[in-house]
Amino acid sequence: MTEERRPWMADLTHHPGGGAQRVPGWSLFCASLAAVAVGGPLLAMSGLGLLATLALLLISSPLLLIAGPLLIGAALFLVGCMAAFDGAMVAELAGLYTFTWMFRSASRGRDYGGHVMDEVKERGKDWGNNLQQKVHENNPLEDEVNI
């Protein structure tokens, strides 16, 4: 009675339909050899890149330590310049929008701002009268001081 050898997991391929099939040893060896042939140089190049990066960091660290305050000042200056440029762009867009609104208003012959100003004046007068009335009603010293 001979026992059948149980296959290794690496010797099996699994298919979506289910089940596993035995992979020949030669195919497995060729696939492993191809993986080493492709992955080996890639791993070596990434290691060399890491080594070069660490060497340059080691060489440049004294310069970074000496020039650090200058670099921080320059970075803050650039951030301030960018913020000022952003503010100028916002002001430009607001001016362009206002100019477009005025041009449309003038080209149609309509006065969009006139009736708004009249309404604001009327509301201001009403608010002022209302405030003055409340002050007169709630002032206990009104008899002593003439306002």
Automatic annotation (TrEMBL):
InterPro entries: Oleosin. Keywords: Lipid droplet, Membrane, Transmembrane, Transmembrane helix. Signal peptide: none annotated. It is a multi-pass membrane protein. It holds the Pfam family Oleosin. One of its GO terms (biological process) is post-embryonic development. Residues 128-147 are annotated as: Disordered. Its main location: other. It is found in: Lipid droplet; Membrane. Coiled coil: none annotated. The chain crosses the membrane at residues 26-44, 51-71. One of its GO terms (cellular component) is membrane. The keyword Transmembrane helix applies. Belongs to the oleosin family. May have a structural role to stabilize the lipid body during desiccation of the seed by preventing coalescence of the oil. Probably interacts with both lipid and phospholipid moieties of lipid bodies. May also provide recognition signals for specific lipase anchorage in lipolysis during seedling growth. This is Oleosin. It comes from Turnera subulata.
